[in-house]
Amino acid sequence: MSKNAIMAGLVVFVAMALLPFWYNIGGSSAAPEPELSEKAKAAQKCVLDKYDMRANHMSLLDEWRDSVVRDADRLYESTNGKTFQMSLSTGEESCLGCHTDKEKFCDKCHTYASVDPYCWECHTTPKEINQ
Amino acid sequence: MNQKYMVPLAGVLLLFLLAYAGVEGAGMQWFFGIIVPYVAVIAFVGGFVRRVMGWAASAVPFRIPTTCGQQKSLPWIKQNCIDNPDKASGVFMRMVLEIFLFRSLFRNTKAAFNRNEKNKLTYSWEIFLWVGALAFHYSFLVVIIRHLRFFLEPVPSCLKFLEFFDGIVQLGLPGLFISGAVLLLAALFLLARRIFDAKVSYISLAADYFPLFLIIGIAASGIAMRYFTKVDIIGIKSFTMGLVTFHPVIPDGVGGLFYAHIFMVSALFAYFPVSKLMHMGGIFLSPTRNMANNNRAKRHVNPWNYAVDIHTYEQYEDHFREKMIDAGLPVDKKE
Amino acid sequence: MSDELKPDELLDKVDHTPSQGTWMTESVQIRPGMYCYAAKPESVETLGLPNARSWNPMEADWKLPENWQEIIHNGIKDRLEKFRTFKIFMDVCVRCGACADKCHFFLGTGDPKNMPVLRAELLRSVYRNDFTTAGKLLQKIPGGDKLGGGRPLTLDVLKEWWYYFFQCTECRRCSVFCPYGIDTAEITIMGRELLNLLGLNIDWIATPVSNCYQTGNHLGIQPHAFKDMLDFFTEDIEEITGVDVAPQFNKKGADILFITPSGDVFADPGTYTCQGYMILFKYLKDKYDLDVTWSTYASEGGNFGFFTSHETMKRLNAKMYAEAKRLGVKWILGGECGHMWRVINQYMDTMNGPADFLEEPVNPITGTKFENAKSTKMVHITEFTADLIKHGKLELDKSRNANRVMTFHDSCNPARGMGLLDEPRYIIENTCDNFYEMPINTIREQTFCCGSGAGLNAGENIELRMAGGLPRANAVKYVHDKFGVNTLGTICAIDRAALSTLMEYWVPDVEVYGIHELVGNALILPGEQEREMDLRMEPLPGKEEADE
C-alpha cells in the first residue's frame, strides 16, 4: 500500500476518532434545565430526592405501572412520608398533574440524552386532551 | 494460580479501585474525570498515528500475497478473483471481506487425531472463534457509536436509528441494548477460550488477558450503571460535553462507579497504541492480503534493491571450458 | 538408520495438548533426528557469507563472533526498516490461536513451539523486549518483562531460534488462516537471515547453494555430467519409443530457454518427469518446429538461496535472466518445482528484472498470449502444456496411464505463493482416467507440506520429516484406502524426492509421479514404435504378458 494511501487512511481515522471535538463547534452544549411549573415550584419536593429522581424515575414509573396494572395498588408512600396516587398522567396528583408541560419538562432532557421513552405510546398529556 | 492472568486481573481491579476510591474517598473527580481522559485521547491518537507512520516508513520490497485460490492464467481457467486477485478491485474486495467479515478466520478448522487402527487425522470446521470474534468486534463498535450520544449535541438521527435497533427487544426499563450484553458475553467467551483451551492458554501472555479484563470491566461497569445502580445521565452528558468543548465541568452527585468506568476506558485507549490492539490498523497494511498476485504481469519495484555478486557465465565457462568442449557443448571462447 | 522410529512409535508420540507452564522459560533441547547438520565451512566460504567455521549444534560452544548480540540487534533493526511485513507481523499478532493446529510440524510432532504463533513468538519476544516502547518500559520493573511477553536475547534463545526456524518449511499454510495474514514463512525467512549473519547455516542448504553458485546447480553437476545425464535419458527413451529425443544445450537463438530443478536430472523419480519434458520438446520440435534449449549454466530452477537470505536468493536467481539474455531466446519456460516458482512469481522480476531483452511470452503453436507472465517473461510448464492440450495440439494416449489411480498433491509454494491449482489438474485429467482428490482441507490453498521443503530434505532429520509429512501422508492414505489410489502426482522436485520417502514410510503402496511423467507416457511421438513399457521401464497396462 502506498504511503499516500496510508496517510489518507490515517487522516480519515483521526477525523473519526476526534469527531466529538469538531462536531460540536459552534453549537450549544449546555445541559437543558427542565422548567418547573408554578405548582411544582410550590410543592418543593417530588416523590424522591432530586438526584434520585433524575437517575431513577424511569424505574420508579416502571414499578408503578406493575403495581397499578397487576395489583391494583395505587398508593405510593414517598421518602418524605407523603402518600401519592400512582399515575403518570391522570389527576392532579399524577406526575403530569404537577409537571404540566411535557415539552418543557420531560422532553428537554430526553432529547438532550437521546432517550425515546415509550410512555407516550399509550399515555397522553392532559394538555393535549384539553386542546 | 496462573500468574499470566492473575496479574492482569489484579491490575484491572486495581485500576477500578484506584478511580473508585480516588473519587469517593479523596474527591479527585477532576483528576479521573478531566486530566486522565484528555491524556488518554492524546496518547491514543498520537500513539496510533505514530505507530502507523512507523509501519508506513518501512519498505515493501516484494509483492508477496498469500494466494488462496486459482491464479489468473489461461483465459479458460476460472480465476478466483477475490482470494487470488490480480487487480485492485479484487484486492479491495478481499480487504473488505477480511476487515468486515474476518474471512480468513472463517476458514478455521480444528484438527483431531485418533490413535486407533485407522490413525486418522481429521479437520472439522471450527466456527466458534469466528462467531465470537465477530460478535465481540461488532458489539463493541455499536457500543462505541451509541456512546456518541453523550458527545454530540444535537444527537444525529442516525444514532437514534441505531439505538432503536439495538433496543428492539424492548426488554426492561431502561430498555436493554443488545450490544452491551453481547459485548460482555463475547469477551467472557474469548477469555474462557484463553483459560480453558490448552493450546490457546499455552500461547497466551499477560498482555492478552489484560485488555480482555479491561473490556470486561468496562462493559460490566457500564451495564451496572445503566440497569442497576443508575446515574443521572443528564449530569453525565453535561460532563462529557464539557470535555469535548473544552469547558470541563464536574457534575453533582455522580458517584465513583462512573469515574471507574471512565478511568478504565481511558486506560484502554492509552494502552491501545502500545499493544497488540494495533491489529486494528495493521490489518489494512498486511502485505500478504493487500497486494495483487500479478507480479509476473506487472513489475514490482523494490526501493532498496542493490547489485549483488554473481557468478557470471564468463567465469563459469573459464572454469569448465575444456570439459565443455570435450563434451561437445557450445562455448563462447574456443581456447 | 537403525534407531529410526517406526511409524507406530511416531504415532504414539503425537499429542496436541501442550503441557501446563510457560514456554518462555523452558530451554531448548536439541534432539538428533530433528535437526540438520551444520554447514561445512567451505560452502559458506565460497559464497563469502559470514563466520565460516566448523561447528556442531550439539556442542555447547557454537563459536559465535564476540559481538553476536549486537549483530543480531542491528540485523533486526535493519530488517524492520526494509520489510514492512516483518514490522507488522511483529506488532499485530493477537495470539488468537487460529494458526496453532494448521502447521504440519505441530500436527506431526505435537511440539507446542511448532505452533506457528509460538515459532513467531520466539523472535517476537526479543523484538518486544528490545524494540518496543512498552517492552523497554516494562524491563525496568522487576518481573515486568514477563508481563509484556518480552525476553532478552540469550544464547539459549538463539539456539531455540536455530532449532525451530529449521523446523519450518515456509509453506504458508498458517497464513491462509491468520485473520491478519501473518505469514510465518516471512518470519522464518527473517529468522534464518539473522542466523546467517552469525554463520548458523545448515549444510543441506549451504552446500547446494554453494554448488549452485559455482557449478550452476544444487547438486554440483558439472556441464559435461549434466549433458551425460540427459544423454542417458535419451538412450532410455529411444529404447522405449524408438525415437531419438536428444535435447539441445546452450543454443543461441533458440525460441525458448527451459530451466528445471536439477533434482529432475539427477534423482528418481524426478528423472522420469525430466524424460517427460524431453519427449514433449521433441514432439513440439518435430510437429511444430519449436526450438527449446537447455542450459548447463542456468541448470537449476530451484533456489536454496531463498532459504538462506534474500541476497543469496538474488545471487542465484540472476543466472536465469543472464543466460536468457546471452542465448537471445524469446522467453523462459520453467519446469515443475515448488519454491522455484515462488521465487519466479513473487521475487524474480523485482530482484533481477526488468527483463526487457525478452519478448512477452506467446505460445507460437497456439497463439496464446501468456498475459499473466508478460513482465517476468517466464511461463510455468503446466500453463504451457495445459494450453497445448486445450487447443488439441498434443496427441495423447491416456490408456498408457490406465494403471495409475491418481491423486494430486498441491505443492505449498505454487498453491499459496502463486495459485497454480487447476493447470496441473487439467493435464492429469487429459493424460489419465482415474483421478481422485484428497479431502478438501488438505488440498489447494489448504494443502499440507511434504514436511521436507525449505531445505530440510536431509537424512539426519528424518524423524522431523516423517512427522511433518504425517498430515500429507494421512490424506494420501485416506484416498488410497477409499479409492485404491496408487499414484501421487506433484509438480515439485523436492516433493518427488521427499514424498517418495514419506510414502515408503506411511503408505508404501503409493508411488510418486511428476505431471510431465504422465505426459511423457501418454504423448504419441511421430514415428514411434509400439510402446511396451512406461518411462520407468515397467510394462504398460495390457502389455504385462509380453513382459514374461
Overview of the molecule:
The complex is a heterotrimer of chains A (131), B (335) and C (548). Chain A is mainly α. Chain A has one domain. Chain A contains seven helices and two strands, in the order H-H-H-H-E-E-H-H-H. Chain A has a two-stranded antiparallel ribbon. Chain B is mostly helical and 335 residues long. Chain B contains 13 helices and two strands, in the order ααααββααααααααα. In chain B, a hairpin with a 7-residue loop joins strand 1 and strand 2. The longest helix of chain B is centred in the first third of the chain and has 29 residues, at 29-57. Chain C is mainly α and 548 residues long. Chain C has two domains: 7-30 and 50-200, no CATH class; 210-547, no CATH class. Chain C has a five-stranded parallel β-sheet with strand order 1-3-2-4-5. In chain C, strands 7-6-8-9 form a four-stranded parallel β-sheet, with helices on both faces. In chain C, helix 17 links the parallel strand 4 (331-334) and strand 5 (378-380). Chain C is globular, with a radius of gyration of 24 Å. The two termini of chain C are 36 Å apart. The model of chain C has no long low-confidence stretch (mean pLDDT 94). At the A-B interface, helix 1, helix 2, helix 4 and helix 6 of A face helix 2, helix 6, helix 10 and helix 12 of B. Chain C: One of its GO terms (molecular function) is 4 iron, 4 sulfur cluster binding. Chain C: Keywords: 4Fe-4S, Electron transport, Iron, Iron-sulfur, Metal-binding, Transport. Chain C: InterPro entries: 4Fe4S_Fe-S-bd, 4Fe4S_Fe_S_CS, Cys_rich_dom, Helical_ferredxn. Chain C: Residues 84-113 form the 4Fe-4S ferredoxin-type domain. Chain C: This is Putative sulfite reductase-associated electron transfer protein DsrK. Chain A: It comes from Desulfocicer vacuolatum DSM 3385.
